[in-house]
Write the structure tokens for this entry.
Amino acid sequence: MYEKENFLIENFMGEIKNTHDLFPCYYKEDEEKVMEYGGKLKYHYDWNWLMPVIDAIKCVDVDKYTLLDAIDDALICIDIEETWGRVVKFIEWHNDEKK
């Protein structure tokens, strides 16, 4: 259920990391960005994974403050599922804007 959205977040972050063996991954097959994870992406239930994404979002130059405000509102409520959902909406909007 969360895999597609978590992969969207991972792509947004542009990170290939192997930190504390949380999710070892690597690229293969030449220029294709095919990722294989040794573990599950945890953006939807672990604040330690989600907060760096929010920090990255805050650095994106956008005029769409309502999306940023929605993320802040969810953070104030300390609701990780709601915050995660709003992060996904922001990234989807951001990706559409890049097209």
Summary: The two ends are 26 Å apart (CA to CA). The helical segments are 3-13, 47-59, 65-76, 80-98.
